Predict the 3D structure of the following.
Amino acid sequence: MIDYEDIFSDLNEESREALISRAEQIVLDRELDRLTEEIVATRQALQLENADKMLLGTRARTLATRLKNIRKKRKSLANVDIKLRIEILIEAVRKTSQTRLEIPPASRRNKDSETLSTYDITKMDSSTIKQHLKQEVETLEQCIHRMANAIQNLRNEETELRARYDIDSLARFHYFRQRDEIRREIEILEICREIAEQSIAQANEVLP
């Protein structure tokens, strides 16, 4: 579906993985909320006198399995707590009294960005930190542009998918499965974009 590595090619690996993991976590939390509501509704329906016990029982078991799988997937998410490179640079500007700060190295593919490792902040002047921060803002702005293009492409895919379904060239099951996959990808990218935009706004607060 989506080549995240291409969209976030200018970000260092840690930032890329952290950004996607955070978005994935939010999407999974939303899915858990919706699934929990479905389970509650199914259990309530089972209490009705004229309920189809067999059908609802099967549905309840299916929902329980999905709930277990989503919880397992959410638990397995890595890098959720890792800070984005831009967040670390913002922190460096705000807390110049901190003696040491871990800054993830830039991606090797990003030749225009100077590699940053562990720095002694007392030896790094504010203007240098801000210069790195400005570069990171530019990097995220490029990623946001690519995300917008990817989201539009996915929406076009959904429109084409609906057209195929409307002329009966796509089975109902396959249509809804593919449609849900596309919408999930869009949701993840929209959350990534929101996180990136918030980070840029925070960076602009500390930049001249």
In short: The longest strand covers residues 100-101. Strands lie at 100-101, 119-120. The chain is about 70% helix and 0% strand. Residues 126-166 form the longest helix (41 residues).
